[in-house]
Amino acid sequence: MKHALFSLQAILGLAIAGAYTEAQADSLRIDTATWFKRSAADSTTLAAADKCWVGNNVVLGAGTATAAANAHYRAILDNPLPGCAFSDGYFYTAHVAWVADPVAPPADPAQVWYFGALGTNEKVADDRLGPLSLALGGSKFWKSNNPEIYYGSGWLMQNSRSDAVRGGSANPLSGCFPAYFFHINQSGGTAYLHLLASNPQAGSVTVSAKGSAYSNSTKPLTGKATGQSYAVSKDWRDATFLTNFSNRSVGSGQVTEIAKLTMASSNMGDGRFEVCASAGVYLYTVVTTTGTTTDAINKSQGLPASGEIRSTSPTAFGREGGVYRSSSATGLTNVVLPAGGGQVLGLAFNTTSKYNSRLQEQTAAFDTRLGDSADRTYGNYGHQYDVGLRLFNTSATTRRVRLSFASSFTAATNSPSFTFNSAALLTGAKVDLYTMPTQPRQVLATYTLAPGSHHDARLLTYIAGLGVTNQQLVLETID
């Protein structure tokens, strides 16, 4: 993976690997005075403690809308009814209706719009990018990308100990967390990349895992929606995984292989997995020439593989080798459309302020790392981005606005390492994001907003490896 060195106010907190469902109404309006009941049984058959009377013209906060079943809606009330002993119950559908909470535009829009139309292949200048309302979250993220290029066998990344050569420290991981790797085989022959989990606990642990890994032999990189990194991103978008197992028992001091990737000479390999462990485990990426699990286990306890190490410095990002503090970026940003057309708004997406202090810092710091590796997740490869834009038309006329995805890096010639090539969902619809240095902006959609209305657009993607960093979301008012 290479990096270009040139240059929500309500937090959603959602983690979705498959299809996206539009937000539903979240208030219940009582149109006819009725009973709120513990069950969907006829109210005349219920004891007094199992039903509570509610007058008409009352609006209750009740989470999200449920489908009708047996002529009743189930509702979990945000606040208990006065004198009612339960908050989880049922309403007769004919007496109530789900309604949307009123959504008010922000009184003081935070964004700065600029006049002037963008050319077909033009992006917004970095210094004009505004911030997204964004929160870094999810779980800790295990990353293996340093050395990106390896020359021989041995381990590439581990979180089990401090190594005399590469440093690091023990950091057992439990619960569910992602693990990501990107490596290039320059050993001179076929090599095998193993992802292992070991159990340092006194008793057995259970390990579950899902995810995919590909090389460019099986997923050749020939353009948009191709290549090993795109394929991994797509599998996570679509929840179609090469590896998927649950509750594998691993004894004390034992090791299990999560995945193995065959890499021909000069192959690139990309993999993203979610690992779940009932107690703390250690992960290893290991290169062997034999492909056997026994060999991989033995090498995990030996010397690191030789390769091209890149460390963080004032003039370099460094490559990731460690456990980082977050794996996702989520948020909802309120945007009020300006009066009139011909105006442009650019919002920072997957940016770092390392070389431009005006850009929003969206990278995650390390939790523990190999001493020669990156201190932040520059590029956020493998991270989930789940970004919402709530667009408000506060004018008295219908407005149209165009949404684009762009990369900040431009150049006269194209290179695979300076593209952005990821699978995504745009408000539930599958799209492929693809930008090149010569074509850095991709139009995604045009929205028409009635007077006084709002529209929610949502982009979900897993950032693919072998791509440029520093992207942007662009809004253009058409009229």
Molecular structure report:
This protein has helices at residues 228-238, 293-300; strands at residues 27-30, 34-37, 51-54, 58-61, 72-76, 88-92, 96-99, 114-115, 129-130, 135-137, 141-144, 149-150, 154-158, 173-185, 191-198, 205-215, 243-250, 255-263, 268-288, 321-324, 328-336, 343-349, 366-369, 384-392, 399-407, 420-426, 429-435, 441-449, 454-462, 471-477. The strands form 6 sheets. Strands 11, 12, 13, 14, 15, 16, 17, 18, 19, 20 and 23 form an 11-stranded mixed β-sheet that branches. The longest helix is centred in the middle third of the chain and has 11 residues, at 228-238. It has 3 domains: 27-99, SH3 type barrels (Roll), CATH 2.30.30; 114-136 and 327-477, no CATH class; 147-308, no CATH class. With 479 residues, it is mainly beta.
Our count of helices gives 2
Q: Which strand-content bin applies to the residues?
A: 35-45%
Q: Report the sheet with the most strands, covering strand number, pairing sense and barrel closure.
A: 11 strands, mixed
How many distinct beta strands?
Answer: 30
Q: Determine the N-to-C terminus distance.
A: 40 Å
Tally of separate domains: 3
- Dominant shape: globular
Arithmetic mean of pLDDT: 92
What radius of gyration results from the CA coordinates?
A: 26 Å
Query: Helix- and strand-based class?
Result: mainly beta
- Unreliable stretches (pLDDT < 50, length at least 5) are 2-24
- Summarize the amount of helix as a percent range: under 10%
